[in-house]
Amino acid sequence: MDKVSIGMNAGIVWRVVRNHGPLVGYKELKKASGLSDRDLNAAIGWLARENKIEFATNPDDDSDLFFVELNVYF
């Protein structure tokens, strides 16, 4: 694993989250991205550091949810 592959995986995760809908669960994100836990977690960290992904907790089962927060400036 290196910065280039983490960045590429971050792009995969970004597209899945952006195109999927308002909230994506971890298991769903893993399946849709095809990434291993290690690669997925590194990509999520990359996106979190860049403020491109946000986190929420599912109140039904306390699982992690991910979503894209759009910043629009006028």
From TrEMBL:
<dbReference type="InterPro" id="IPR036388">
    <property type="entry name" value="WH-like_DNA-bd_sf"/>
</dbReference>
<dbReference type="InterPro" id="IPR019707">
    <property type="entry name" value="DUF2582"/>
</dbReference>
<dbReference type="Pfam" id="PF10771">
    <property type="entry name" value="DUF2582"/>
</dbReference>
<protein>
    <submittedName>
        <fullName>Winged helix-turn-helix domain-containing protein</fullName>
    </submittedName>
</protein>
